[in-house]
Amino acid sequence: MTQNFIEAVKSRILVGDGAMGTGLMAKGLEAGGCPDLWNVDHRGDVVDLLRAYREAGADLLLTDTFGSTRWKLGAFGLDERVDEINAAAVDLAREAAAGEAFVLGDIGPTGRFVAPLGTDPREDFVEVFREQAAALAAAGVDAIILETFMSLDELLAALDAARSTGLVVIASMSYTKDQAGTFHTIMGDDIPGSTARIEAAGADIIAANCGSGPDDYVDIAKTLCGATSLPVMVEPNAGLPQLVNGETVFPMGADEFASYVEGILSAGVRIIGGCCGTTPDHIRAIRRVVDSLA
Fold first, then answer.
1. How far, in Å, CA of 125 to CA of 158, rounded?
2. DSSP state, 172?
3. In this structure, are residues 264 and 214 in contact, taking their beta carbons and an 8 Å threshold?
């Protein structure tokens, strides 16, 4: 892509891609398996999924690197393969993008807590995230997205690391609704407070993903857009997960999902994609709404 990513965000509504994890599970990824290793061992499946999102109308594709920090890969004995796995993921996303979509390097949380809540000091988090961010940048991503963070402290450490690349950084938290009808992370951070600190720390785009379906994201989008002057991105799930015959499923179909898109965009959102349970059909439905509004 020759157009600068942030210029594209400001000039038009962009459509993101859909779920990676549930998408790979549909292709045979076993529960408890390492989706990031599929960038090496199942390259064709990763390309096929990302290509399907691009052909459905996605303007940006996220790399299959949500768990590609040294700490997360270490659970599979892969902690020495950070550079290899991240570089492979970028190559596959570039192939799927075919010059028609931006490629975003995806970084997820480590599963650990920053001290004193956990045992690892903040500087160790920054170093682990910097290692992955540097690998993604060296492989040629257009921007970096930090997504599904539930701890503001961990997100801010990841943001410090990602900003060291000089790339555009999207910072995304996962919020759920409490009994009072307001949205917080599981650590108790609300949207306005989190957004203020993320913006002050230098994020280029503020985002929310996962946690709930697009029905909740109408309110999440309004709150996010009201809390910042930066561009906003959202990626809802395909509804709330349900356990059916021992399997977790996300029940919301593409048309129902798309019925909320206009309400989300009317809040001022600049990028809309899908998270858990969303498929190329969901992205195709989002694309239709975005094009009709354009």
1. 7
2. E
3. yes
Joined tokens for residue 149: 């963070």
Give the integer Cα–Cα distance in Å for 29 and 285. Answer: 26
Question: What single-letter DSSP state applies at residue 75?
Answer: T
E runs forming strands in 182-288: 183-184, 205-209, 232-235, 242-244, 247-249, 271-272
Residue 15, pLDDT > 70, answer yes
What is the DSSP-derived secondary structure letter of residue 213?
-
Lowest mean pLDDT among 7-16, 123-132, 233-242, 275-284: 233-242
User: Measured between alpha carbons, how far is 104 from 221 in angstroms, rounded to an integer?
Assistant: 21
Cα separation of 58 and 77, whole Å? Answer: 33
Question: Residue 2 has what pLDDT?
Answer: 46
> What structural domains and CATH numbers belong to the chain?
5-293 (3.20.20.330)
Say what percent of the chain tops pLDDT 90: 91
Beta-bridge partners for 106: 145
Does a cis peptide bond (omega within 30 degrees of 0) precede residue 116? Answer: yes
- 160-177: average pLDDT: 97
**Cβ–Cβ under 8 Å, residues 155 and 116:** no
By DSSP bridging, strand 232-235 and strand 205-209 are parallel
165 Cβ neighbours under 8 A, 6+ residues apart:
133, 134, 136, 137, 144
Cβ distance 172 to 208 under 8 Å? Answer: yes
Per-residue pLDDT tens for 81-92? 999 999 999 999
Collect all residues with Cβ–Cβ distance below 8 Å to 290 and sequence separation of at least 6: 13, 15, 57, 261, 265, 272
Prediction pTM value: 0.96
| 182-211 mean pLDDT | 96
Whole-angstrom Cα distance, residue 190 to residue 206?
14
Q: What is the phi-psi region of residue 76: left when phi exceeds 0, alpha when psi lies from -120 to 50, beta otherwise?
A: alpha
